[in-house]
Design a protein that fits this description.
The protein is α/β, with parallel strands linked by helices. It has 14 helices and 15 strands. The chain folds into 2 domains: 189 residues, Response regulator (Rossmann fold, 3-Layer(aba) Sandwich), CATH 3.40.50.2300; 152 residues, 3-Layer(aba) Sandwich (Rossmann fold). Strand 12 and strand 13 form a beta hairpin. The longest helix is centred in the first third of the chain and has 21 residues. The chain is globular.
Length: 397
Amino acid sequence: MKSALLAAAAMSALLLAAPASAQGVKIGILNDQSGVYADYGGKWSVEAARMAIEDFGGEVLGQKVELVTADHQNKPDLATSIARRWYDVENVDMITELTTSSVALAIHELSKEKKKIDIVVGAATSRLTGDACQPYGFHWAYDTRALGVGTGGSLTKAGGDSWFFLTADYAFGYALEKDTSEIVTANGGKVLGSVRVPLNSSDFSSFLLQAQSSKAKIVGLANAGLDTTNSIKQASEFGIVSGGQKLAGLLMTLAEVNGLGLQAAQGLVLTEGYYWDINDRTRNLGERFLKRTGRMPNMIQAGTYSATLSYLKAVKAAGTKDPDAVAKKLKELPVDDDFAQGGKVLENGRMVHDMYLFEVKKPSESKKPWDYYKQLAVVPGEKAFFTAKESGCPLTK
């Protein structure tokens, strides 16, 4: 009788589990697809995730991998509503990309509540693996600390020892200004001031005039996407660079350089976690992406490829979709793909890998399409990112 009851219970459990298994593995790309960051990540990140799924074989644990996507329009409340529906109704297992730090922080908190994996790629704030870290949250590609070390540290050491910041007026901008300021002052520089600029501004004139009157050697652009390209274009009209000040695009990627063109972008110094022409593996990813999309990926799109691939590898290694088991495997497995080689995930969820300091080429130096960067330095991952202990993540105490 006891054996019969146990067998019946086991059969019932299998029947109950069957619908969930039949649903497969579902990954969500939640990002800005129509606004200021549409070129920075947008539909190109969706294509990168699709490419990773195809490269993995389209299934894991005998289950089909499905991709869903939505535009959060840079609104944390809208993003949270979409993510909640994905988690509660549509059985999405993991959400990634998550451009915009305010959005990423909101989804990070929801993922903790729902015990679901999120891998942030597009958002920058180092708080995600700092005071806001959580057991199911991960941060790929870059963060404000790495950008501050790369661009802020190098320019300060090269003599740019006074700074004024144009700062995007939300979580990302604040974190980027803070982390860069700390690097600047640690290297003997001074911050002369800053001004907060609303997201998606069309007129930067009053902010640029304040930067110009500060006489700072470096005007740090703590913004991204179209806000960065528009501020650079308008800075040229005010003669900021011709007047002796230098612009630092603290979060600038290949997409923004392409949008500006080499004539306008030449000489800019920036930090990225990926460039298609670094080595054979980065070229492999870049050239395959180019064939699919007509453009080379930036670090957000390439990072989304890596995050998606790493999640699928972790599910396979865990032998289950269970978030606790998958999170454990994400922190155990090395990250070795066409985005990053020799990467590792820390206890706080931060993926550590080398970053690269680049200078944008002059038009005369570019020998082929998308040949935009001169590599100035490699910033080792251990130097670019906080250690788990330094991050302030309560999981590491």
